[in-house]
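User: I'm preparing a small set of examples for a lab meeting where we compare how different chains pack in three dimensions. I only have the primary sequence for this one, and I'd like the structure in token form so I can line it up with the others. Please keep the answer compact; I'll paste it straight into my notes.
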Amino acid sequence: MSELNKPLHGMRVIELAHIMAGPLCGMMLADMGADVIKVEKIDGGDDSRRMVPPTVGDESAAFLMMNRNKRGLSLDLKSEAGKAILVQLLKDADCVIENFRHDTMERLGLSYESLKEINPGLIYVEISGYGRTGPYRERAGFDLVAQGASGLMSITGPGKDNGPVKVGAPVTDITAGILAAMGAAAAYAGKQLTGKGMRVDTSLFEAGITQTYWQSAIALATGVSPEALGSAHPLNAPYQAFPTADGYINVGAANQRNWLRLLEVIEAMHLNNDPRFASNADRMANLEALVAELEPIFKSRTSDEWLQRLDASGVPAGPILSINDMLKHPQATARDMIVETDHATCGAVQGLGMAVKFHGTSNNPSKPPPKHGQHSREIVAELGYTDDDIQSLYTSGVISTAE
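Assistant: Understood. Below is the structure token output for the 403-residue chain.
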């Protein structure tokens, strides 16, 4: 299918972002059809280029994962000529993404207030640690710190006596990137109606908070902060991992119908007559006793045996896969969640595919991640610079190129 069919075709995005949240936002917009120009610092580029090991060929695997479908411009923003090139790009852009420290864009003369004077239609996406307002607006943002401040680490792990545990994935970085992409796409839809841009402001702190809906519901209703429950659910039971004869499986008998189905599968209908487990509220109140009853039963068979039985009965259940097993899973393959591009120096590069499918268009990436400065000459030429101009910019160190 043609790139013209992608929903954000025609949108021009300038990405002034590094590491994860900002580049993820840019990659999502690029996957949806936007022309994303990734502007990197002249000295080494995006810091994720140095997050090694591992590498694929001569590039960081971390950088390759976050930067497909973009064109790369390496630019010295400390020079007047470099800033002039960036301003020219921003004059005609639909969107700019930045995740710098709180005053960096202002010091460069690139605040939203100054840029909207030259481009009233500019969508100005800011991703920071705590947001651009409030008493913490000047603090830097890191996923680990945001997970702690947002409450996530208090509800993650085996329990309060085992110390705080972070979510294994950098969930606030990832969620902030998703929220920023959603905000940018919404603002772009609004621009089609009004012709005007706007500021879009999100943070790692708020991204972490959005992961606490159930726990916040409990705290707001009761005044009591929920604690970590391991794999268990704060509102439904049984809904957690159980040990089997050869590993663990997840069981999600989260409503009364599935509870009764589960009892039939595990041949424990006598538990239906136990007043401790009569309703979901009872099971939650007696969760420790419930687990004590169920664990010996699940340990009597292998994971595969239980999963076959549970699946046949319609009880939600599933394996606990390693990352490698997940990447090889037939459903992940069928849903194009592992995609491949042909990189200039690394050859075939694999990455995670789009989690949102747009039927009637290609969901596969069209461009590999750029080499540092790979499209510098091409992008500057589009601004009207001559070959001599571009060579002078290169010689004076305003731009760098992949070659």
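A couple of notes for your slides: Residues 75 and 399 are 5 Å apart (CA to CA). The radius of gyration is 25 Å.

User: Perfect, thanks.
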